[in-house]
Specification:
This protein is α/β, with parallel strands linked by helices. It contains 7 helices and 16 strands. It is globular and about 55 Å long.
Length: 270
């Protein structure tokens, strides 16, 4: 399978320009599965929930998904893209999986970062794995990465590849993805943006350096800190299905789940 990411500088508040940019770069991409950044058409910084709602769109009949559907069909490509999703009275920070058939699946960001909590509704989709031509694909969005449970849940559900649209501002996520891949034996596609957004006295600097990491922690492709880029690599997804660590150990079979306190109830009750 050929997997890749697209990195670019999203233009804040200009969905038409951003749609055109994604279309241009997707048309130049030769991959079976390609990932775009988080909030790929709206930009990241908002000044009000009303503004976020005005830049959000329905996944059923919105213009961005329509563009991506056309490209997915023309190029027989699966596209995972971050988008501000309008669903009834709710606005979600979502990622949509667009299939060549025109079908879509959606993941809604579980762990909202900083002021996202002011604009978006917490995700209600849960962590799910989707079949993409016999390859099992999971999705998480940006800040989900810092919670090991996100990747582990997807891996336990059988994900071979985790698609990770992101607008990263913290400086260490890209390196942490090596650990996430090692502890779960999965492929990871982190599609980040670069550039700076300034709105109403606030500033975010995005870190670029999008990455594809393999199940043994190897960096298979990496983008620059600043600059547009497309990177595609060919992988054998079945490498993610062998969880053995030598003759005597297995990543999942060796877990001692009866001894883990995953709820953290003792700490949270203090």
């Amino acid at each position: 399978m050929r997997i890749g990411f697209i990195q670019y500088n999203v233009k804040s508040g200009d969905p038409e320009w951003n749609r055109g940019k994604t279309a241009e770069m997707l048309a130049a991409t030769d991959a079976d599965l390609v990932v775009l950044p988080e909030l790929a058409t709206s930009g990241y910084l908002f000044t009000s929930r009303q503004e976020a709602a005005g830049l959000a769109e329905s996944l059923d009949d919105g213009p961005a998904v329509a563009v991506w559907r056309g490209i997915a069909a023309d190029r027989n490509m699966h596209i995972v893209a971050g988008i501000a999703e309008k669903a009834g009275d709710n606005i979600y920070n979502s990622a949509v999986l667009v299939r060549p058939s025109g079908g879509i699946d959606v993941y809604r960001k579980t762990h909202l970062f900083h002021e996202e909590k002011l604009w978006f509704t917490p995700g209600d989709s849960g962590f799910n794995v989707f079949d993409v031509g016999g390859v099992r694909v999971g999705i998480m969005v940006c800040f989900d990465w810092i919670f090991p449970e996100s990747c582990r849940t997807l891996a336990l559900k059988g994900a071979d590849i985790i698609c990770h649209p992101a607008n990263l501002v913290l400086p260490y996520c890209q390196d942490a993805m090596i650990t996430r891949c090692l502890e779960n034996r999965v492929f990871m596609i982190t599609a980040n943006r670069y550039g700076t957004e300034r709105r109403a006295g606030k500033e975010h600097i995005f870190t670029g350096c999008s990455r594809i990491v393999g199940p043994f922690g190897q960096v298979l492709a990496e983008g620059p800190e600043r600059g547009d880029c497309i990177e595609v690599v060919e992988i054998d997804h079945t490498e993610a299905r062998n969880k053995a660590l030598g003759e005597y150990n297995d990543l999942f079979k060796d877990r001692q789940i009866d001894l883990y306190e995953l709820s953290g109830s003792a700490i949270l009750s203090e």
